Amino acid sequence: MAMTMEIRRIVVAITGASGAAIGVRILERLRDLDVESHLVISPWGRRTIQHEVDCAVPEVEAYAHAVYKPTDLSACIASGSFLTSGMVVAPCSMRTLAAIAIGLGGDLITRAADITLKERRRLVLVPRESPLSEIHLENMLKLSRAGASIVNPVPAFYNRPTSIDQVVDQIAARALDQLGLHVSDTPRWSGFET
């Protein structure tokens, strides 16, 4: 009789939308949770990291267990037979979101996302755009109907954040919640005190 084991492996993609710190924080949290991470950073994601984050791209890559070039469609994460628990794209540019919505697997990020959907694994997208056009909303609705979780990076104010780091922590934790990974030190709503 074959035994099944829980797969603790997540694909992480960082694309060229603002909010690279969220993807970096997710990688840090995955490492803290002892979850194997497989990272792809788009060319514009690399530029955004350089502009927005206080560490260099090689330092970000060091958080991951494996790193792939976005052009490497022969990477293991491009195949459904490579088992993962899911994938998170944080931040997710509208270009990437649109490509995933129409099944355009032209690079490793969109191919891995397509694989995640077709294998019925958890796909979490953290789109960073405002305001949203009708096209953006239609693409998000299409992806939600296909099984993706759309986690807009909207801060929770009930925990009274006093720094950007606290906002980033909360958004990263909410994205990880969608993957069934729960960070214990994240403030959570417990109701009004009476």
Walk me through what this model shows:
This protein has 194 residues and is of the alpha/beta class. The chain has a single domain (9-177), classed as Rossmann fold (3-Layer(aba) Sandwich). The protein has helices spanning 20-32, 43-52, 57-62, 94-101, 108-118, 134-145, 164-177; strands at residues 9-14, 36-41, 66-68, 86-92, 122-127, 149-150. Strands 3-2-1-4-5-6 form a six-stranded parallel beta sheet, sandwiched between helices. Helix 1 (20-32) crosses helix 7 (164-177). The longest helix is centred in the C-terminal third of the chain and has 14 residues, at 164-177. The model has no long low-confidence stretch (mean pLDDT 94).
Helix and strand topology:
Blueprint: E1 9-14, H1 20-32, E2 36-41, H2 43-52, H3 57-62, E3 66-68, E4 86-92, H4 94-101, H5 108-118, E5 122-127, H6 134-145, E6 149-150, H7 164-177
Parallel strand pairs: 1-2, 1-4, 2-3, 4-5, 5-6
Helix pairs in contact: 1-7, 4-5, 4-6
Order of helices and strands: EHEHHEEHHEHEH
Number of helices: 7
Mean pLDDT: 94
- What is the level-2 CATH architecture name? 3-Layer(aba) Sandwich
Looking at the structure, the CATH topology is Rossmann fold
Overall number of domains: 1
| Low-confidence runs | none
Features:
194 residues, Rossmann fold, six-stranded parallel β-sheet
In short:
It contains seven helices and six strands, in the order βαβααββααβαβα.
